[in-house]
Amino acid sequence: MTSDRTPDNYDLAALREQLLGNTDGEINESIPQLAEADPGLFGIATVTGDGAVRASGDSRVRFSVQSVVKPFVYGLALMDDRERVIAAVGTEPTGEAFDAVVLESDTGRPPNPLVNAGALLTASLVNGADPAERSARILAGLSAIAGVDLEVDEEVAQSEELHGDRNRALGYLMRSAGTLPVSVDDAIEVYARACAVLVDAETLAMMGATLAYGGRNPRTGRQVLDRDIVTEVLSVMATCGMYDGSGRWLRRVGLPAKSGVSGGLVASAPGRLGLAVYSPPLDSEGNSVRGVLACEQLADDLGLHVFA
After folding, report:
1. Between β-strands 273-278 and 43-47, what pairing exists: parallel, antiparallel or unpaired?
2. N or C end: fewer C-beta atoms under 10 angstroms in the chain?
3. d(CA 229, CA 86)
4. Residue numbers of the domain that contains 118
5. What 3-state class would DSSP assign to 147?
6. 67, 195 in Cβ contact below 8 A?
């Protein structure tokens, strides 16, 4: 149901207050830094085409981007060599957990770029002669998408590598299938550093807005991703971005989106706004409980569902 509310006059503080009492969900404990997150943190931000940022709550608290980085890395890899990436990674939703040890049975490819196997591969396909160069390319690309200089949390990156046994299993499986073009250690290093990039809800909303406006950053005015590349990124986000809850999300919210286990969530309403939420407690599928509820309400109130 829509109303006369717009992103310009929407009361994000009231929405936050409405949802703040929801204490459902659990903190992810896959690495120590995530386990230490304050479950009470809750920030919401939107960014429109004029670059205006509207926010409420803990919107400037920084957190590691985790899996929210995946569609942006996919976009950077497509920019560098679209044909190679399309040939190397599928685009089908899995109905499985994000870290499921699953590849396409007939090709050995990852099923899509938003599960861990696919992200390991796409990060390895970003331009660069070695892990350091690929990591630098990713950080520079993410910074351009965000319109600010981003940085890596080195402690989180080290923890990601140290606790990445399942990702290593995926890497070795892809190496055995002939689909991973670099060593497993190289792939893990680049992917871990990408997941450890620090953002906040306002920065993440700006990144979502860059996608919503066809690859043009609303703050800088710079065209940082080609429009046709953004179309491919948003399409995969719509079908695969919310883990094995993607179908329900698309029906209920109707926006391309991506969540991460640190509690971040980014969504893009094409031509309308970028939206981000940070709230660490996660549901059973790995999505921020308050983040999903906030996006559902915003989609209803502002008429954001792409099929409405």
Report:
1. antiparallel
2. N
3. 11
4. 69-195
5. coil
6. yes
Does residue 78 share a domain with residue 62?
Answer: no
Structurally, the chain folds into a number of domains equal to 2
- d(CA 246, CA 238) in angstroms, rounded, equals 7
Q: What is the DSSP secondary-structure string of 241-261?
A: TTGGGHHHHHHHT-S-EEE-T
Q: What is the DSSP letter of 265?
A: E
In terms of C-beta density within 10 A (0-12 exposed, 13-18 middle, 19 or more buried), how is residue 35 classed?
exposed
Closest to 113 measured CA to CA, from 181, 175, 30, 124:
124
> Which domain CATH number covers 293?
3.40.710.10
Task: Give me the residues of the chain with pLDDT under 70, please.
Answer: 1-3, 95-101
Residue that terminates a domain, selected from 195, 228, 256: 195
Q: What is the pTM of this model?
A: 0.96
Give me 293's structure tokens: 């509820």
| Whether residue 24 is found in the same domain as residue 50 | yes
Task: Give bridge partners of residue 26 from the DSSP assignment.
Answer: 282
Q: Which residues contact 41 (CB under 8 A, 6 or more apart)?
A: 58, 61, 263, 278, 279, 280
Phi, psi of 68 (to 5 degrees): -60, -20
